[in-house]
Amino acid sequence: MYKVLIAVSDEKMITEIKALHVWGGSSGFEYFLTENKKDKLFSDLKEERYDLLIVEMSANDETLFTALKRIKAEGLCRRIALCGSVGDLQTARKGMLIGAYEYFISPLEPNDMIRLFSRIKKEENGNAASEIYIADELLELFENRNSSIGEYLRTITDIGIAKNAVKSVVSDIFSQNEWLDLYVREDQYLGSDDNNDDLIEKFLSFFEIYCKLYPPHNEKIHSVIDYVLFNPENDLRQKTLSEKLYINSSYLSTMFTAQTDTRFVDYITIVKLHRAAWLLRNTGMKIVEIAERLDYKDIGYFSKQFKKLFGITPSGYRVPENYDFTI
């Protein structure tokens, strides 16, 4: 079922809209009424996905026009149609500037609405295939740790398609790698309220973390990486791990570096510190407790290593990103 959000204040027009025999049934479209106000529109569109937004508009309503341009730019609703009680050439022109689909004039005609519905259905069928293709391409780049993934994501000009592709890839990666829940939260990277730049920045941050924690490797050391990622708080010293997994210690060190281009001891540090970062942000544990839990006996050394990796001290990292430092 397609959802249409209608923001109309004129009572006569509301009655006309309700009376149109185009809703439900075979059309596949249902309408939802809301207030013709900027803040209410943003609230509704962020809370629910709508396939079409119909707004009552006049040429001198600059505030609403600005809001519609922002709605379009942020991908809150890809399709916007305008309507009015009288024909207004200036409003129609402004509608074209924001990429409005239609400009309806009262009395509303069922055939005009049906033609618009047909156009939306054709686009949706095409976009569905396009989104699947883009998500598949993005997932392949991600799994292959391809550094061009950011450039590819920037070529997707439709913010709605980009968000859906990112959401699909993030969900797939989390479902395929259960260990990720020990280091990052999936909801951090779904980008529901992000603009295009923020979406890409967050996604690439997730990509970087994934590449660090899960470097390319073959089956010979897969069991090692798998054990480490699922047990970051265990004793992961090379000798201990070699004995546990029945692998020659020297062979482990040599093979690990050759395949991942990272020394084994450095990899263990990366894993433990990313686990520390998760504990800092998601628990109330004291920093000294986190350090001890991850087998760091010296809190000063732990803090130094943490700052070296993240560019910030453990206490600084714990402060929420949106914390307001002003008094």
Structure characterization notes:
With about 325 residues, this protein is of the alpha/beta class. About 60% of the residues lie in helices and about 10% in strands. It has helices at about 10-20, 40-45, 60-75, 90-95, 110-145, 150-155, 160-175, 195-215, 220-230, 240-245, 250-260, 265-280, 285-295, 300-310, 315-320, and strands spanning about 1-5, 30-35, 50-55, 80-85, 105. Strand 4, helix 4 and strand 5 (about 105) form a beta-alpha-beta unit.
Summary tags:
327 residues, alpha/beta, 5-stranded parallel β-sheet, 5 strands, 58% helix, disordered C terminus
Note the topology.
Elements: E1 2-7, H1 11-19, E2 29-34, H2 38-47, E3 52-56, H3 62-73, E4 80-84, H4 89-97, E5 103-105, H5 110-143, H6 149-154, H7 159-176, H8 196-213, H9 219-230, H10 238-245, H11 249-260, H12 264-282, H13 287-293, H14 299-310, H15 314-318
Parallel strand pairs: 1-2, 1-3, 3-4, 4-5
